[in-house]
Amino acid sequence: MDTRALARRIRVHALRMVNRGGSSHIGSIFSEADVLAVLYGAVLRVDPARPDWPDRDRFVLSKGHAGAGVYAALAERGFFPVEWLDTHCADGSRLSGHVSHKGVPGVELSTGSLGHGLPVCGGMAYAAKLAGKTHRVFCLLSDGECDEGSNWEAAMFAAHHRLDNLVAVVDYNKIQSLAPVADTLRLEPFADKWRSFGWEAREVDGHDHDALRAAFGASRDRPVVVIAHTVKGRGVSFMENSVLWHYRTPRDAEYDAALAELTAAAP
Amino acid sequence: MRDAFVARLLERATADPRIMLITADLGFGVLTRFAEALPRQYLNVGVAEQNLAAVATGMALEGHVVFTYSIGNFPTLRCLEQLRNDACYHGAAVKSVAIGGGFSYGPLGFSHFATEDLAILRALPGMTVVAPGDLWEAEESVDALIAAPGPAYLRLDKSSAGRTNAAGEGFALGRSRRVRDGGDVTLVACGGILGDAVAAADALAGEGLRCRVLSMHTLTPVDGAGLAAACAETGGLVTIEEHVVSGGLGGAVAEHCLEHGLRPRAFARLGLRGEFATTVGGQAYLRDVYGMGRTAIMAAARDIAARK
Questions:
Q1: Which helix (DSSP H) or strand (DSSP E) does residue A240 occupy?
Q2: What are phi and psi of B139, to 5 degrees?
Q3: Which candidate in B51, B57, B89 is best for mutational testing of the A interface (most A CBs within 10 A)?
Q4: Model's pTM, two decimal places?
Q5: Are A116 and B54 within 8 A, CB to CB?
Q6: Going by C-beta distance under 8 Å and a sequence separation of 6 or more, which residues neighbour residue B109?
Q7: Is the interface score ipTM higher than 0.90?
Q8: Are the beta carbons of A18 and A24 closer than 8 angstroms?
Q9: What pLDDT digit, counting tens, does each position of B2-42 carry?
Q10: Cα distance from A109 to chain B (closest Cα, Å)?
């Protein structure tokens, strides 16, 4: 699948979903969109016809607030009808603002409270090792989410057990809920933190599809973290690098302008 | 109770490779046999209870039946949201086991008193909550929780509580056990404090007061039939728990009775009320200090009998 086209479709779907649903986190969804597109378009071994296929790669969105991006990716991959996306956050919908697995094929774990995904993925990866299975477990975290201590418990666990089938991806867009990450709770030296915990850390431009694809290659003997340097709000000029679009819902003229930028963009 | 639990779990895990035992660095000397016999089914995640519950969930989602092990409030309150969001919401077979229910670690102080756990865990949808009253119930709980799908909380008592089972007796989650029979008052107990209830009933028999003793080992689901019979056939209920009365056994019984039109003629709840236990001491001593031991049970039973 053309991952760049997929990324654009994810962004357009998400913009519509957030607008219709009156929900938020569009900036966080735009920053992760390329990571999702590369994973779902080129990396993950999954089968939409068999979402519970035992040998599938597992993907967990730990930054559950950006769930619209995952729903869009799953719909585009054929896990469920694209029309479902129109119900996002509506009364009675199965597509909640934070990602949920109930009734949604392809979602492995319901999240929304931060710091849950990576620890559960540690258990999934450990179980795969015990069973001698070769599938991989991918977990996408936000940068602000790395404030949660549970992630560092999981980081120690994964390194101790040399879970080379586990890949953490951090959507490092440098902005958390209220202010820049650097002004809230500094992460740097971020890659060194992971390395000191026993992980292989790879830093890439999180919007460069070739670089992302290469970074998702397996390690020989340890868990891998892909620190994806991204831009919050990527793809819409007035949303980029703006704290405002963590929570703001695009409405009316803002929505039209954002949609115009996304649909005009190549490819 | 702890040793009985581990021995039965080892027996079951030997025959069933799905079963895992994960500790958060507690169980010195207790888990050694299991760890040596089944190294692939044993894991120590370190002093990291959030990770304990989450790793257990990840493994359970991959088909394992996972028992997590720690003491006091550590495998429950410390990682409550992991139990709620990860284990319960996903219906994962995570069986959280706490050693040291109530005042088991009485000399160690309040941080090690598990006295709100039952109420808090009982509020989690999908969570089966079990507090065995004796060694036999502890062993049978292991089998029952392996057979039951989904998450569970198993609260064990550090004290040895003997065995109260009759020959050939069966154990079922959600079905209380009539350990003593009588028509004057019903003593409803959960956890190892059942031993005090039995002792109180035996002593009261000498006074001519005949008490029924129910071991309500399962709080979720609570035994409605057993309570209905007790309300209809005896003069009233006394609930006994090494726990705060709100939301635990006393809360569960009160809720059930009112919602189902059961009307015990008199009702009393023994347990902690509106305070943290701050006194230090042995388990039996603290039961007396906080008004839930044998003496308090006898007084409550006499009071109920007098109100008939």
A1: none
A2: -65, -45
A3: B51
A4: 0.96
A5: yes
A6: B280
A7: yes
A8: yes
A9: 999 999 999 999 999 999 999 999 999 999 999 999 999 99
A10: 8
